[in-house]
Design a protein that fits this description.
Layout (H helix, E strand, L loop, with lengths): L2 E5 L11 E8 L9 E7 L5 E5 L8 H8 L4 E4 L2 H12 L6 E3 H8 L8 H9 L19 H9 L4 H14 L3 H19 L11
Parallel strand pairs: 1-4, 2-5, 5-6
Antiparallel strand pairs: 2-3, 3-4
Helix pairs in contact: 2-7, 3-6
Length: about 200
């Protein structure tokens, strides 16, 4: 696995193909308080591209163009959070997109374990090391352990999507999954507007 770290933005000319795996690292779990620090990307070739953002400007035109490109599918795990922080800090709507966590919930109804580590272990037989999950992503220099952790969160998403697509088709839930994915930008907008816990569809 090769890991490339870029400061501020992606270089021009990178081609991630028809689908790019995406993840984010922040200073916490409240988008309006905890700044977006890092965006990880992979084309599914086993390599990772990490963009360490300038948190004073978030001026990253190449990254924004990629994430907003309607011809490139963006694959996330728990897209609801990532789409919200990208919207808040980069000012763009991410679409089209796919969420492996939603796909897991729609297919793996025999378990309540839908975290990335559990999903990769069951479907791909790979153990992830999550020790750096709560580390300081705002550090000026990221450690090798942080970079390894950030990379592993995207390099398996293409393979997971392929397995989950098979399961969705088997259970006849592909269409409802697509509808859920299409709704995610609206769900993220509700989160940013303050409706994180309240169900606006409730009576």
């Amino acid at each position: 696995m090769a890991i490339k770290l870029y400061k501020g933005d992606l270089p021009g000319g990178l081609d991630f193909g028809p689908a790019v795996a995406v993840d984010t690292e922040t200073l916490g779990l409240i988008p309006r308080r905890d700044k977006l620090c890092l965006v990880q990307l992979s084309s599914g070739d086993g390599n990772a591209h990490l963009v360490q953002l300038d948190r004073t400007s978030y001026d990253a035109p190449n990254l924004k163009t990629l994430l907003a490109n309607p011809d490139v599918m963006k694959i996330f795990h728990f897209a609801r959070f990532d789409v919200a922080v990208i919207k808040y800090y980069l000012g763009i709507d991410v679409a089209p997109l796919y969420c492996t966590k939603i796909a897991s919930r729609l297919t793996r109804t025999y378990t309540d374990r839908h975290g990335l580590k559990d999903l990769i272990k069951e479907l791909l037989g790979i153990e992830l090391n999550k020790q750096q999950q709560s580390s300081d992503w705002g550090a000026h220099v990221l450690s090798d352990a942080q970079k390894q952790y950030a990379a592993q969160d995207v390099i398996y998403l293409h393979e997971l999507k392929a397995r989950l697509d098979q399961m969705l088709a088997r259970e006849g839930r592909t269409d409802v999954a697509r509808a859920c994915f299409a709704f995610l930008p609206a769900r993220a907008a509700l989160d940013l507007a303050g409706w994180t816990e309240e169900d606006v569809f409730a009576h």
